[in-house]
Design a protein that fits this description.
Blueprint (H helix, E strand, L loop, with lengths): L8 H5 L5 H17 L11 H8 L2 H7 L8 H10 L5 H5 L3 H23 L4
Length: 121
């Protein structure tokens, strides 16, 4: 979630009316993980669980990554590890500046991803 709104594919799945299809998707992911020797090596979220979490905002906040609740320490860590910022540049930011910078960059990434989801004309 960001800015109090769910983004991405989970909200797409809450419009489904076929739990069987979600079960098939869960099986497909399991089969691919098994094929590549990754089964059990990572915590995989299930499509069925995502469906039920998407039906309730509070449950969804606990299930999905809630970017509105990122701490200043987590924001700084993200800026260094994922955005390529120098640790010295991040260290001089105040807590509110670190969080604001993090949120601005996340919003930019969200816009880019949502652009990818738009149908081609």
């Amino acid at each position: 979630m960001i800015d109090g709104q769910a983004r991405g594919w989970i909200r797409y799945y809450n419009r489904m009316n076929s739990m069987t299809m979600l079960g098939h998707l869960d099986s497909l992911v399991d089969n691919l993980l098994r094929r590549y020797g990754l089964l059990g090596s990572t915590d995989v979220k299930r499509f069925r669980s995502a469906y039920w979490a998407s039906r309730d905002n509070e449950r969804f906040r606990r299930y999905a990554l809630d970017l509105d609740r990122v701490s200043p320490v987590e924001a700084r860590s993200h800026l260094v590890e994922h955005e390529g910022w120098q640790a010295t540049a991040v260290d001089v930011l105040t807590d509110s500046q670190a969080q604001a910078t993090f949120r601005r960059l996340v919003r930019r990434h969200v816009i880019e991803m949502e652009r990818d989801l738009e149908p081609a004309s």
